[in-house]
Write a structure and sequence with these properties.
Layout (H helix, E strand, L loop, with lengths): L2 E7 L5 H5 L7 E5 L2 E6 L2 E8 L2 E7 L3 H7 L6 H6 L6 H9 L10 H10 L5 H15 L2 E6 L2 E6 L4 H6 L10 H13 L5 H9 L4 H8 L7 H11 L10 H10 L13 H25 L4 H24 L6 E5 L1 H5 L10 H10 L3 E4 L5 H7 L9 E3 L4 E4 L4 E5 L4 H13 L5 E9 L1 H6 L3 E3 L5 E3 L2 E7 L5 H12 L6 E2 L10 E9 L1 H11 L5 E7 L7 E7 L4 H12 L3 E6 L5 H6 L2 E4 L5 H6 L2 E2 L7 H9 L2
Helix pairs in contact: 4-13, 5-11, 10-11
GO molecular function: class I DNA-(apurinic or apyrimidinic site) endonuclease activity; damaged DNA binding; oxidized purine nucleobase lesion DNA N-glycosylase activity; phosphatase activity
Enzyme class: lyase
Protein name: DNA-(apurinic or apyrimidinic site) lyase
């Protein structure tokens, strides 16, 4: 075979940055600055030089690898388009300017990103290596003393005929096999998808084609489009990018500003946030903490050990999929109830092994009444992430307490803007139900420790609006929820307050909402009432109290293989960001549907249960 050695002068290519960018899983590091790469059955060695790179490959493969590395794209000009006012992105591009979006094989990318679901990069690479070594064809690369052995990616025919259980793909195995079968049977045409891109079909149209494959939802499709079809307008959002959006972009990166290059921006952000996380981890390991910090850490660890021991023994899903549904507007119908046959259908699925729970803005008193006929055993996310609650022991596992000076700021503001509502606090005593089942520690994110089973008290100073009257009467009479009247809410500022719920017309609440946004320690949910009264809710809690953090807590607590979230309203977007797959019911808010991997039937038609029944087949 004739080999050629090509030098490419380019200031915007860094092999290490590309190899660690999360877009390619088959780059083998031979030594610093040298990689052995197999793609679409072709092999090459890449060498990093000071002013560019060298490509060593067979002469017939030169054009393939030039295109593979996207060498015709000027990434310097792409970086020039970054908003100079966006310091975080500008810094990210400076750090990761050697990243390029590779032009990779579509079939390989589909399977690779199905495998990538709820996986870290080293584990993905290990899984794909094992798959290729066992089922692929051997490639030997010999040139001037280099003797390298690699394997091609197995074809759909090989995948269909193989026993995939040895690779331990878990729930992903059925998606991999079904995808290969669909391609072989002509139900899904790889060339048709590539032709759609060449013909100028919109990214959304192409995405819908990809989502026909089982296991390919919004996030996986976006990755396939960006890295397998080179559609640079795609901006995949994983847990890293979700954190960046939440911290630096008020929950939403300005994708619209970067039309046609948003995917490159995503790679710069992804690179920076992971690099900085690694540096922080190294600094924490090397840091010489003073005695006070050590003592505080010991105190926290001792108090958490009780909880961790309980989690390990009692809350383990053994690698199963966990399904988490919102209630109002999602699982519940327009009367805020379950359809008549839903409890029976859910219980049948739970008996079959379905791991199911709910994430809701409601408290346990109302959830218990609504879901009384469903045999829930998995911990629930209540009050939009304020509390993690065990429905079996009827005890609080975790709660986020609002800091005292934030409480004072809230109460000062509510007087300024003339609004009132309901305040929720944890009382010092243990509830009778929980003391019988045994005591466990409750640790909030600030390290404050309490006992599980603390009662939750709900305070109000006056029934100021017709909606408050309805809220109060319904929960008192239907759900037997206890309320405590105080002369003024300021009287309870010294208690462990976890949540405020306030409901008025939008024009009344919005100024208060804007005022509260100045306190970065608060989490605010401001959204329209799903039951159509024309009113808006403002829910106030600790910054770590959201469905996003609630899902993260369940992930640590239950150890599921992956989590699927289902919702309908804007307060479910944090839920979607934290889950591996997301489903919007047919009646969901437009923005929620846009962020979902799957669109289900409506809540009135029991869309969630229909989806779960299909999943359990």
């Amino acid at each position: 075979m004739d080999y050629i050695d090509i030098f490419i002068k380019n200031d915007y290519i860094d092999l290490k940055q590309i190899a660690e960018s999360g877009q390619c899983f088959r780059w083998k590091k031979i030594c610093p600055g040298r990689y052995f790469v197999i793609s679409a059955g072709q092999a090459a060695c890449f060498f990093q030089e000071k002013t560019g790179i060298r490509i060593l490959c067979r002469e017939k493969d030169e054009e393939y690898f030039r295109r593979y590395l996207d060498l015709d794209t000027d990434y310097g000009k792409i970086i020039e388009r970054i908003d100079p006012e966006d310091r975080f992105l500008s810094g990210a591009a400076k750090m990761g300017k050697g990243i390029r979006i590779l032009r990779q094989n579509l079939w390989e990318m589909i399977i690779s990103f199905i495998i990538s679901q709820r996986n870290n990069i080293p584990r993905i690479m290990k899984s794909i290596d094992a798959l290729c070594e066992k089922l692929g064809e051997q490639i030997v690369f010999d040139y001037e003393g280099e003797h390298l052995v690699g394997y091609t990616f197995p074809s759909p025919e090989v995948i269909v005929g193989a026993d995939l259980s040895e690779f331990k793909f878990g729930y992903r195995e059925k998606y991999i096999r079904q995808t290969a079968e669909d391609i072989l049977e002509g139900k899904f045409d790889l060339e048709e998808v590539k032709d759609a891109v060449d013909e100028g079909k919109t990214p959304e149209q192409v995405k819908e084609m990809l989502k026909q494959l089982k296991g390919v939802g919004e996030k996986v499709a976006s990755c396939i489009q960006l890295f397998g079809l080179h559609q640079l307008s795609l901006f995949p959002v994983d847990t890293w990018i979700a954190k960046v959006e939440e911290i630096y972009y008020n929950g939403h990166f300005p994708v619209e500003r970067y039309e046609g290059i948003a995917g490159v921006m995503q790679q710069y952000l992804f690179f920076r946030v992971r690099e900085e996380a690694e540096k922080r981890a190294c600094l924490e390991v090397k840091a010489d903490k003073n005695q006070k910090e050590k003592s505080e850490e010991i105190r926290k660890n001792v108090s958490k050990k009780v909880l961790k021991k309980q989690e390990k023994e009692e809350y383990n899903l053994s690698g199963k999929m966990l399904y988490v549904s919102d209630l109002d507007g999602t699982l519940l119908n327009s009367d805020a109830l379950l359809n008549e046959d839903v409890p029976k259908r859910l219980n049948a699925l739970i008996e079959q092994g379905l791991c199911f729970t709910v994430a809701t803005a409601r408290t346990y008193a109302t959830v218990n009444s609504i879901m009384k006929d469903v045999n829930l055993t998995c911990p629930m996310i209540l009050m939009n992430g304020v509390m993690i609650y065990d429905p079996v022991k009827k005890s609080c596992i975790h709660a986020e307490i609002i800091e005292r000076d934030s409480v004072e700021y809230i109460l000062k503001g509510r007087k300024k803007f003339g609004v009132t509502g309901f305040a929720y606090a944890l009382s010092p005593e243990i509830s009778e139900d929980c003391s019988k089942s045994g005591e466990t520690s409750v640790v909030d994110s600030a390290g404050r420790v309490g006992k599980s089973g603390r009662k939750m008290a709900t305070y109000y100073e006056k029934i100021a609006t017709q909606h408050m009257e309805k809220f109060y009467t319904e929960r008192r009479d239907l759900y037997h929820k206890p309320f405590s009247k105080v002369e003024k809410l300021e009287d309870i500022s010294g208690e462990d307050i976890i949540y405020f719920s306030i409901c008025y017309e939008e024009e009344v609440l919005r100024p208060f909402y804007e005022y509260l946004k100045k306190d970065e320690r608060l989490n605010l949910n401001f959204y329209k009432d799903v039951y159509g009264d024309g009113l808006w809710y403002l829910e106030i809690s600790h910054k770590n109290a959201s469905k996003y953090y609630g899902i993260q807590k369940l992930r640590k607590l239950l150890h599921p293989a992956a989590i699927t979230g289902m919702g309908d309203n804007l307060n479910d977007i944090p839920l979607f960001k934290a889950c591996d797959r997301s489903c919007a019911v047919g009646n969901a808010h437009k923005e929620v549907k846009e962020r979902a991997d799957y669109i289900l039937d409506t809540n009135l038609n029991a869309g969630v249960v229909k989806f779960l029944e299909k999943e359990m087949k």
